[in-house]
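Retro notes (design track)

What went well: tokenization of the new backbones is finally stable.
What didn't: we kept losing track of which sequence belonged to which structure.
Fix going forward: every design gets posted as structure first, then sequence, in one message. First example under the new rule, 174 residues:
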């Protein structure tokens, strides 16, 4: 843009700092928070209350090992929610791959009765502003309460609608 808005400040207006490294952006700063949601294959009820805390903890560990911070992990028998802070170097698709792949193998090893366990192929990933972190964290914490009155399918479609994501209902459930 030209005119009254120069890209480089003029030297005569610089009074608060000298002309040096302050004139360029030498570092990258991000605050990327995501709310991930994914289901078990065909929404089968594999994650019963007897193992869920171990599964949630393991998912948090996968996040930590890959440079993310799990702010909240929770869910119910047929799906999981994760509230994560992630580095800019990790795309949401890579995050989903790390979480689902790592936890699926661990579940098979740790719980032999769940040898048929699988996550669904897809996932939902929604950006979260800092001002909404507490609300989303509480929502994830209270999953059992929410799902006494609302199915996973209704919840997931509401997330897609809330975030203005176009979808074809024929392909949402795979």
């Amino acid at each position: 843009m030209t005119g009254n808005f120069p890209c480089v400040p003029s030297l005569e207006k610089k009074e608060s700092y000298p002309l040096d490294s302050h004139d360029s952006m030498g570092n990258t700063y991000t605050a990327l928070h995501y709310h991930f949601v994914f289901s078990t294959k065909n929404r089968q009820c594999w994650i019963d209350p007897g193992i869920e805390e171990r599964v949630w903890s393991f998912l948090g560990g996968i996040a930590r090992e890959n440079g993310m911070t799990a702010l909240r992990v929770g869910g119910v028998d047929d799906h999981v929610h994760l509230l994560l802070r992630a580095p800019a170097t990790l795309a949401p698709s890579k995050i989903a791959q790390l979480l689902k792949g790592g936890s699926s193998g661990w579940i098979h090893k740790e719980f032999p009765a769940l040898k048929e366990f699988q996550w669904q192929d897809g996932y939902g990933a929604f950006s979260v502003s800092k001002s909404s972190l507490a609300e989303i964290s509480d929502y994830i914490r209270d999953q059992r309460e929410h799902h006494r009155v609302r199915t996973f399918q209704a919840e997931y479609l509401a997330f897609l609608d809330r975030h203005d994501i176009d979808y074809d209902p024929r392909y949402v459930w795979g």
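Added context from the reviewer: The radius of gyration is 21 Å.
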